[in-house]
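The instructor's notes for this session suggest beginning with a concrete chain rather than abstract definitions. Hand out the sequence below and ask the class to guess, before any prediction is shown, which regions might be ordered.
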Amino acid sequence: MLGFAAKALLAGVMIAAIAEIGRRLPAGGALIASLPLVSILGMIFLWYARPDAENMAVHAQATFWYVLPSLPMFLVIPVLLRSGTGFWAALAAGCVLTVVLYLAMMQFGPRFGLRL
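After discussion, reveal the predicted structure:
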């Protein structure tokens, strides 16, 4: 339980730091947020819990394929905001789009030989 709390605290500190940096330097906050820090930490924690090379390879490859459907959200949100859509509606639309694309990836990915 202590390990879980430490991981949650670390994730919270990362998010708070990104928000603070982003408040002062929006592009700097975006750069830090775009780094695969969560993925790297997740892989470290997963390796510590289960040091299995094949398991890690599957995890890393699936992470790559799941990142792709999330990318359009970062184009849709600014377009909607600049067209006058409110923040919460633009965020919700971006999230809905991402969920739809994730579901499509889960449906069609294995048909193309992807291990998801």
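Then share the key points. The chain has a mean pLDDT of 93. Residues 53-116 form one domain.
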